[in-house]
Amino acid sequence: MLCPFCLTNQKNFHNIERDGIPRLLCPKCKEAIPSRYIADYKTCPPVVVSVVGFRGHGKTVYCASLFYAMRRSGLASIWPGFFTTALNEESLDIVIANSSMLEKGELPPSTVKNFPRPTLLQIHGIPGYPPRTLLFYDTAGEVFERASAVSRYASFVMRAHTVLFLVSIRDLENPAPEMARLLNTYIIGLEELGGNPSMQNLVVVLTQADRWLPAIDGFPKIREHLVRGSIAHLANSGNYVQTLQAISSELRYFLLTKVGAHEFVHAAEKFFKSTRFCAVSALGAAPMGHKLQTKIVPKRVLDPLIWLMEHSLTPWQRFFDQTQIMKESQLPSEGDRFDSVFLVVNVSSQDLSATKFFTWISVHLNPNNRQAYEWPQILCVRRTGNRSRDTVATPENQNR
Asked: Of 86, 162, 339, 344, whose Cβ has the fewest other Cβ atoms within 10 Å?
């Protein structure tokens, strides 16, 4: 089990008593592990949220705006069953304090240069995605100026499957070479820790988009996406991912043609498992010093989160996500032919482990008694035409 504080794998946590209350401590860092983190570890597994970027490029403000958007923008009204919950008092205080500051028109303070303590937040009910425990790590931008500092203060990047790479192009004197330098520094630091960028997904987040909207007159899709920026478009998350893919392609072309960031884009696509691009405005308008001049209106701050959730899916979850979900009353009738896998879902657990399912699922529905073969939590049925007998995929016959 991954300790959320020191990010080491531990077989067991130590049972102790503090102030008359039983606690579980990590044997390495001696931190008390939240009880719900342990109880929900399998059904709500941890996802390390690694936020990378130069000083002043909006990492802390983006995280605060994301907390605000998740809690106070009405997401629960368009996503039935959506909610977030902090796992310890410290995380709850951070989420509430940052959201309240933004609501009052104030900016959160800059992050100090140290190994950060994570903000632990469970997220449930995003359509198409199982629940996750998000471990937010945000350290000072100075850390990413030197590879040696990344190794010392940002070793959390080792545990991240997806990296949010924040860049404010308006705050760079020479955006193209400086973006390439930041990426190069990150790669060196990660490799010095023993990590491999080819195992990570890179989400390039262009921050403070409200400041460079005039520069994208030739990109109407990007402009419309940013200007509209409503959470209503998130109602159908499946279609929204397709929208994000199109916007990613547009932003890639924008970086190549308008910013001249060829080296950055090419290196990102060469070294990382996948590279996506998105643009956000954490506040909706530029602040005056540390004060907002207008009410906060976050624009597209949930886009990186959607990419994060998309990349957190296991291969099995991707497989079942691509099948057709049906109610039992919609089972195929006699004589019907289908080429795809159908799932009759009774999901109380999101654990789609390989021990319960096989890649080659081929179950013929018996038209006489409508009998099927049931695995825990999920019923898999496939009509393969006029098969002479029923076959069930097993480790012995799945290759036949």
From this structure: 339
